[in-house]
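Record pair follows.
FIRST:
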Amino acid sequence: MAIENYTNAGILVHPYLFNVSDEIAVNNSISKIESEVGHIDILVNNAGLIQRTPALEMNPSDFRKIIDIDLVSPFIVSQRVAKSMVSRKKGGKIINICSMMSELGRDTVSAYASAKGGLKMLTRNLATEWAKHNIQVNGIGPGYFATEQTAPIRVNGHPFNDFIIDRTPAGRWGNPEDLGGVAVFLASEASNFINGQVIYVDGGILATIGKPHGE
């Protein structure tokens, strides 16, 4: 959503651009945010990178890059924000955007799945360490969603589109709006006693072994 769309909706937005995998950039930028806007009560770690390459052909440097963005970056940003949360003694919310690949493997995404699996466990471990400071650390695991990126394959008759429809008990792709309620819940006081959990918004994919074609 473009900044002007937020403005037109009457929502005040303060954009900051920085490298979330660079500790110095993260520290300086968050300090600037705290100075110019105010303290951070809710953090959503949403930055991500994927490269679809068979494991036998994956360059280790590319593997490390994906791990760095998808796993190390959430740690760096969470650590910096949590330090301020602890010092203020007001608690806070940290939400990590995980994936069904936190639980499942799939061809060509070895680095992404490794990172997202690690992010699930990072979520649990940070929750374990920071719950005593009234900081709730949880995750959201999206399934397959209807976005601009998936538009070319969300066509009737496309093998992957048919696969997702058949594999998902809800019988459809997710809509971006389907994630909003979970995010609001985890960011609100309603989730104050929920910690270290990943809520999968996947239309039921992880709940089932699937069904034979045509059943």
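SECOND:
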Amino acid sequence: MGVILSIETATTNCSVALGKEGKLLALKEDYNNNYSHAERLHKYIDEILKENGLTPGDLSAVAVSKGPGSYTGLRIGVSAAKGLCFSLDLPLISIPTLTSLALQVDKNAGDFIIPLLDARRMEVYTAGFTSGMEAVFETRAQVLDDTSFLEYLEKGKVTFIGNGVEKFKKICSHKNASFVDGKLPSAAEMVVIASEKFAKKEFEDVAYFEPYYLKDFMAG
């Protein structure tokens, strides 16, 4: 297995990583609160390859965060990934954004992991996993209230992570809830999933692949 380039642009974090056989080789990202994908993504891709003595021709595949997340961010990331795959005749791998975000939580932290991505007002994009990363509910858009995720909170300790955490902390006081603040999806966690999918040849159709927006685009 060769080197896989991973691209994450679903939130404000413009992030690219190089991985090989499930190991992170290099990471470059702009971890802040402003969208910079249009200005930085292609620059980061060029830089991370050069800094590691590689050329685009050394890549075996490109992985991209497929969403949900920012409409514009996802389109920029997917367009870049598809462009590389077309020009280099590489396979395209898609990674669910919430799955890779959940991987930032220590598996020993509790019983469940629930990532929350901000989706305007009191709504979030969310999915649920056991501590062993088995899905307990699929990706969905959800309006938060003080009874949200109660069935999991009553069963055991739940760790919430993502930029939607700040909203939920204000209305959730359950003893089994813990919150990981200030975390955004990163290409670093995509490396393991991309390697597994590459080994299984779980590739997307480059011509027809589209991001998973979950909701229709709304102009600001």
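COMMENT: The mean pLDDT is 94.
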